[in-house]
Design goal:
Elements lengths: L2 H67 L6 H18 L6 E4 L4 E3 L2 E12 L1 H12 L6 E9 L6 E12 L24 H4 L2 H6 L40 E5 L2 E2 L2 E8 L5 E5 L3 E2 L2 E7 L3 E2 L7 E2 L2 E5 L4 E5 L8 E3 L6 H7 L47 H5 L7 H4 L7
């Protein structure tokens, strides 16, 4: 082995020995020290948190005692009876009848408290249900509303309302002593006449919680009478005429560069589009008008779009948002200019008869008057191509002979 190889071997051996020494020191000394430091820091944080909780324990006890005063009692049976009586009173204030109450079968423990409650069901209108939920929301007692459901009843505007009201029964051992709880000490200050309650009237007005009910099928046609059946009497009242479908003008969009009127049947939900020239309201659509005009139902408001229909004798307009049955007749001055020019006829000018003049005289020939037969009357007949003013222009006869030979004149004194 040469000297150079011995040096490389010594260097390599030394590096291996140093690496093994570092691993031994890290495993035996450095790593345990780091873990001990981490544990010490975590224990310090735990101790600080425990000290903070111990310091806040008196404040928590005070808050817990205040919350207990808002409960229905510290005894399970007493609390259940108090909740039942309180619910009956709230249902009465909400203008509901006597509810059907049934206690929750199993009481669930939440921490050191016991959770108990009642199931309640009643038949009421949607407005009365809203009253009940408003009063329960503003009730100062400890409670929680679960499983509130309402189902519409067939052939009625009422709903079947069901709700579960839960409360907590706190353990007096955790309160640091016995506490007297009086559920009747807390009064419900909310009233149905409050302005905050009136904000919920929209729920009943729009009937927002009623599900979609499919339209019933049309009735079966009446079978024709048999030959043996007696003929119907003349005194029988006639059936009422069919009610017109509630068709509403819902929009006036521009579809592919063409203005379009969109109407919808509010009962069936069917939507139909009409373009200019289509038949509507027994007439023809002649214009989609976007001029701002006073609304027919309220002159203080403005309407910015309407459809104009021309019938044989009149023009009608329907504003966006109106039913077709609310059409109104338009005067000529209310029509758009292009509609007036296209569909309103202009009055014909009256024919003008000019007096005749003699040749070579600048004044009208008042001395020469046409001789009219006793049985005939002079009548001015308008013509597209009137003849020159003269005797033939008044009588309406063609001028075939010379003027000097056809005219008969007489001298007037």
């Amino acid at each position: 082995m040469s000297a150079r190889e011995r040096i490389l071997a010594y260097v390599t051996l030394g590096m291996i020995v140093l690496g093994l020494l570092y691993l031994g020191v890290f495993k035996l000394i450095i790593q345990p020290t780091k873990e001990a430091n981490k544990q010490a820091q975590q224990m310090a944080l735990d101790v600080a948190e425990l000290e903070n909780q111990v310091n806040l324990e008196p404040e928590y006890r005070l808050r817990l005692r205040d919350v207990t005063k808002k409960s229905f009692g510290t005894n399970k049976d007493v609390a259940l009876q108090a909740v039942s009586a309180h619910l009956t009173e709230i249902f009465k204030q909400a203008r509901l009848g006597q509810p059907k109450l049934s206690a929750v079968n199993s009481a669930r423990r939440v921490g050191t408290a016991l959770q108990v409650g009642w199931h309640a069901s009643v038949r009421a209108s949607l407005d009365e249900v809203t009253n009940l939920l408003y009063l329960l929301q503003n009730d100062p007692h400890i409670h929680r509303i679960d499983e509130a459901t309402w189902l519409p009843l067939p052939n009625s505007n009422d709903v079947e309302f069901k709700v579960r009201v839960m409360t907590l029964v706190l353990d007096p051992k955790t309160l640091g002593g016995k506490i007297e709880v009086d559920p009747k000490a807390l009064k419900l200050e909310a009233r149905l006449a409050d302005a905050q309650r009136k904000a919920y009237d929209l729920i009943d007005d729009r009937d927002v919680f009623r599900p979609y009910i499919k339209k019933p099928p049309p009735p079966r046609p009446t079978p024709p009478p048999r030959r043996n059946d007696p003929p119907p009497q003349r005194n029988d009242p006639r059936p009422p005429p069919p009610r017109p479908a509630p068709i509403k003008l819902v929009g006036l969009p521009t579809w592919q560069g063409k203005p379009t009127a969109v109407v919808r049947n509010t009962e069936s939900g069917e939507t139909t589009r009409y373009e200019l020239g289509a038949d509507l309201l027994g007439g023809e659509i002649v214009a989609i008008d976007y001029r701002p005009m006073a609304h027919p139902s309220n002159p203080l408001l403005q309407s910015f779009s309407r459809v104009i229909v021309r019938t044989r004798t009149s023009f009608y307009a329907v504003e966006v948002g109106q039913y077709l049955s609310e059409k109104r007749r338009l005067r000529t001055d209310q029509l758009p200019l292009d509609v007036r020019e296209a569909f309103v006829p202009k009055p014909n000018p009256k024919p003008v008869v000019t007096p005749t003049t003699s040749p070579g005289d600048s004044k009208p020939d008042t001395d020469n008057k046409p001789i009219v037969e006793p049985d005939t009357k002079p009548v001015a007949v308008p013509d597209d191509n009137p003849t020159p003013a003269g005797d033939n222009a008044i009588s309406g006869q063609p001028d075939t002979e010379d003027e000097s030979s056809s005219k008969e004149t007489r001298d007037e004194p």
